[in-house]
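Submission checklist for the structure archive. All mandatory fields must be present; incomplete records are returned to the submitter.

[x] Identifier: Putative pterin-4-alpha-carbinolamine dehydratase
[x] Organism: Paraburkholderia phenazinium
[x] Residue count: 101
[x] Sequence attached
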Amino acid sequence: MIHKLTSEERSTQLAQLHGWVAVAGRDAIQRHFKFADFNEAFGFMTRVAIKAQEMDHHPEWFNVYNKVEITLSTHEANGLTERDIKLARFIDQAGKDAQKG
Ligand code: H2B
């Protein structure tokens, strides 16, 4: 079983990410993205999907046109783990160029 982050590890790691917030009532983090249009949003989602498949670690996400909401948690651990942090770092990088606001 993968190690669930302690609250200390959690806050250290979260401080190094961009715009991720804790989800109320659940050990998970969430970030909202807004892109110029659907094409930019879906291009971003495609890059994240390829990484997720490689990592065998998948986001929970919701897309409407140019908006993407992403929630990360490790189902197997029922909480936040290093895998979520690793994927969040990739997502931050992938979203950096394309993001509008
Ligand atoms: N993604 C996430 N977010 N949490 C998991 O525990 C998880 C996953 N487990 N992707 C993987 C797939 C598992 O179901 C497969 C069988 O390896």
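[x] Structure attached
Curator remark: Residues 56-58, 74-76 surround H2B (CB under 6 Å). The first helix runs from residue 7 to 15.
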